[in-house]
Amino acid sequence: MSEAATTEHPTNTGISHNKLAMWVFLGSECLLFGALISTYLLYRNEFHTGPAPGDIFDIPFTSVSSFVLLMSSLTMVLALSALKRGDIRNNRLWLLTTALLGALFIGGQVYEFTSFVREGLGFTTSPFSSAFFTLTGFHGIHVSLGIVMLMSLLISSLRGNLKEKNSETVEIVGLYWHFVDVVWIFIFTVIYLVPNPTS
Amino acid sequence: MNTSETAVTTEAAHDDHDHPSDAKYIQIALLLGIITAAEVATYFVDIGVALIPVLMIMMVVKFFYVASWFMHLRFDSPLFTKFFVAGLILATTVYLVFLTVFEFWSKG
Fold first, then answer.
1. Can you tell me the ipTM of this complex?
2. Prediction pTM value
């Protein structure tokens, strides 16, 4: 193969295989969250004698959490942008900010779950509660994994191993993070904002 | 060309994409924030039968902006978009059939 051909097609697809793998993974994640959202929609009216979704959801509180997660997508993209410019200091700052915003979102979810349990909505209270906790819990686990990835990047950067040439690694973690945000965009509208049944 | 040179070339090839400025990202985030505020406003202001279509439109617009700008789909290889959209279409189709089978629409 000539040198020019190698430069044009460094991989056999002409694109990064790592990035492609992440996109394929994200495509498959659509099926997971699609299943969980559909199951919730089927069971949202099945609250039996337990609290109904319309009685228990705190929309103003969840709205703030949603805004926090949305803004973490901005800080993630700013972290990538800084690294591509070779601005290591700002890259670290935005990575840390993204992780903190993610942690704030998770803190809000823990508070929400705790208050629901106090109001009598446990995991096995009703089909609605099981579907709700499974869906939002799975999302929370995804956000938590994202925070672990962000902290790993930050530690790697502090050890001097995250340079401009490694920007694709940050981009791939960023793709995962933005996907988690996109899923919450769906959850927030479909589960919280669409009018819910009351008891 | 050896392996390390190829890797550098790969990296350089990816950096060639003309990504937007930080100011543009902030602009998009502001727009997303405004749409979220509008979504939340529908909880407090009764807009009648238009509620669900309006919420769905705002949700799709937010999805579009995050996927195309923050996830760089509009700048990257169309193959990435194809894989992601394939997953989305497959999921949407399968679960619309699933919800139909369980008579979700008639139950409300």
1. 0.89
2. 0.89
